[in-house]
Specification:
three-stranded antiparallel beta sheet, 173 residues, four-stranded mixed beta sheet, alpha+beta
């Protein structure tokens, strides 16, 4: 069964509540990158950067969890990408051109969350996994100009049962 470590950036007060209650707040709506769920990074530095830079929390912390699920929709894998592409083609074939273009423009602005939420209704999965460009980048590696662009992997846990409750801990960065 696939397992992952996930890192969730948040504020100290919210983090303490998560650790105490062993429960996360679900992000809902088609405007989230990977649809409805609880968002994690596979790299703790990405989670901390998100909490500091994107959310601008006054006291950012990172919550570490273990995620285990045999129902992972993994967009880092070509088979799941093909399946997703075929699903989108079926959805779009049923729409008129105006609605199709509207949905495509929304996806360009806000991500593919709407499509993932639709797919979930047909194929309930517990976790979505996808790769994005990282915000972390070394300009120089050993004094040489670097053009490497690192990737970040995000996990969207749709069902809280995929998170091992005993694994929820605050990580001191």
């Amino acid at each position: 069964m696939p397992s992952f470590y996930g890192y969730h950036g948040t504020d100290m007060l919210l983090g303490e509540k998560i650790v105490e209650e062993k429960k996360f707040h679900l992000s809902l709506g088609d405007d989230h990158w990977l649809g409805d769920g609880i968002y994690f990074f596979e790299d703790h530095r990405e989670a901390l950067l998100w909490a500091k830079s994107c959310r601008k929390f006054p006291t950012p912390v990172v919550i570490e969890v273990s995620i285990i699920s045999d129902r992972v929709f993994d967009l880092t894998k070509i088979d799941d990408q093909i399946r997703f592409d075929e699903f989108i083609a079926v959805i779009e074939s049923k729409l008129d051109n105006v609605k199709k273009e509207e949905l495509r423009q929304q996806s360009k602005r806000k991500g593919i969350g709407g499509y993932i939420n639709m797919l979930y209704k047909l194929e309930p999965f517990e976790v979505v996994r996808a790769v994005f460009n990282s915000h972390l980048r070394l300009k120089y590696i050993r004094g040489l100009m670097s053009s490497f662009s690192p990737a970040q992997i995000q996990l969207c846990v749709r069902e809280h049962c995929a998170i091992l409750e005993d694994s929820i801990v605050m990580r001191r960065s």
